[in-house]
Amino acid sequence: MIEGWRWFGPVDKVTLPEVAQTGARAIVTALHDIPYGEVWPVAAIRERQAMIADAGLGLEWRVVESLPVHEDIKRGTGDLAALFANYRQSLANLAECGIKAVCYNFMPVLDWTRTTLNAPVRGGATALRFDAVRMAAFELHMLGRDAAADDYPPEVIARAGEWFDASSEADRETLLTSIMAGLPGAFDRYSIDGLREALARYDGIGRQELRAAYKRFLEEVIPTAEELGIGMCVHPDDPPRDILGLPRIVSDAEDIAWIMDAVDMRANGLTLCSGSLGANPANDVPTIAADHANRIHFAHLRNVSREPDGSFQEAAHLVGDTNMVVLIRVLLAESERRMSQGRAGTDFVWRPDHGHEIGPDLTRDAHPGYPLIGRLRGLAELRGVIAGLRVS
User: Fold this and answer.
1) Is the entire prediction scored with pTM above 0.90?
2) pLDDT tens by residue, 187-216
3) In the chain, which end has fewer C-beta atoms inside a 10 angstrom radius, N or C?
4) Strand duo 116-120 + 126-130: pairing
5) Is-catalytic flag, 297?
6) Which value, to the nearest 10 degrees, does the dihedral of the CA atoms of residues 362, 368, 373, 375 take?
7) Catalytic residue of the set 70, 235, 292, 297
8) Which of 300, 317, 356, 361 is catalytic?
9) Is-catalytic flag, 235?
């Protein structure tokens, strides 16, 4: 298991020297300025590699997060042949530059979704939060999606109406901004009308249709990844449930088993995100990790605390509802198995994901969920667990 750190490139408020100070060595980044669907040129990849290497800090770009999947591929519309060809070419260019792990997701329209970016936690720190009541208020009363009444329990719908009636225009604008935060680097930031238009383009696309589009994507790109020695690793849905009337198809153990079987090659793998999977109470995250250990190419380690109404909040890394020690024991066993077999280059990078904003983080305005001190705390705690398991 190789310690990594997500770095958002030259615009990141966390600098490369600060990343080096955490002790991590593997950089996880992407070329966020290239529009979705276009080829990542070798020159641009090498420029980012040189920026990292020339800092002279012993850091190396090891994982792409993310190489985005164009919305036309998810909907099965438009010039798919060109989009698939571009994706394969980007993979070839990454392989030429020595980068062999590529994270991506297949979430329609939005990536990770939270309703609050600064929920208060002990001592004045803040955390990311998904609040079912506010999400229902957004869908029913701001977006005007009447069918959302079927997606939430009656008590959540009632409380959503109360929240909306008591909210100010500024409250509603903050909620929209929070929901749109998504993955840093995403090009689309929707207004209410823009989001309605984006959702309308998915009319008639349900779970089976989205699965069919995903299977085609896998069939188009995984054989190329296999030839190139690249591990493609899908990121689970976040949250792991349908939202905005859109199906989510990477949310639980059955979904992941279907994906692994759809194209049964080593290159078709998983980003084991303990937070995304852990937000679904039906998921036993250590068991999912054990079932697919040989196909894990990358890992996000974070924790969430779930609530009965479907809400959840980012917890400290060792505190939430997933037993992180048990999970790390599974991942460490797989890492050691690979090393014992002499599988050079096949061990996986892990990184601390989503930290609380702590102390100096509160005034730094880093990407939501990606502060320096909060993630450093998580990295240190997880590093300690790994060290303890290795000598136990």
Assistant:
1) yes
2) 567 899 999 999 999 999 999 999 999 999
3) C
4) antiparallel
5) no
6) 160
7) 235
8) 300
9) yes
